[in-house]
């Protein structure tokens, strides 16, 4: 069955709450998480958007918060990291992170796999662990097999993305993070829009749609819960620039 393409989103309205993924949405994907290049205009653009939306803007990323903030100044924004496992409100209040008891054992198993495939990138997070195999695609089967086995234990869910497999805490996802932020007084009553590119963003697309909002897919057409689509990171930047005016 052919996949129906989606139209571009309408101009950003002043009554929305805007939530943005980071990698593949605001910055181009790179071979390794630390190899990204953050556009010089991005911090000022986000500030302008926050001013136009009365502070109703947030970043919801798969990166750990500490890692995200090495690349982007998130002060003044609501921000979620580790696929919803970490959450900090716009006033700086951080909510506690629940760490599965089996995380230490999972890290040991993943490190052992990385000795077999030295080009794997292991990304340890406060409540989970991700394995990137973009540089060694022949390791995909071994990575998926191990991560699937580890996810069958207590506390974890396997989250697959673009050349990455990740263990995240059960009950933590980008949709849950969006719903939690929408309960904050600053966001309450607004229409949530979530912009993202990966399979990991589908939970947030569905969550936004469930509370009178919508998702915006970034990238080529695919089966998705999003309502609209933007072609790439450059198209996202152009749409945001228009919305910040």
From TrEMBL:
Gene3D superfamilies: HAD superfamily/HAD-like, Trehalose-6-phosphate phosphatase related protein, domain 2. Pfam families: Trehalose_PPase. It catalyses: alpha,alpha-trehalose 6-phosphate + H2O = alpha,alpha-trehalose + phosphate. GO terms for molecular function: metal ion binding; trehalose-phosphatase activity. Its cofactor is Mg(2+). GO terms for biological process: trehalose biosynthetic process. Its EC number is 3.1.3.12. Keywords: Hydrolase, Magnesium, Metal-binding. Pathway: Glycan biosynthesis; trehalose biosynthesis. It is an enzyme of class 3 (hydrolase). It comes from the Bacteria. Removes the phosphate from trehalose 6-phosphate to produce free trehalose. Belongs to the trehalose phosphatase family. This is Trehalose 6-phosphate phosphatase. It comes from Allosphingosinicella indica.
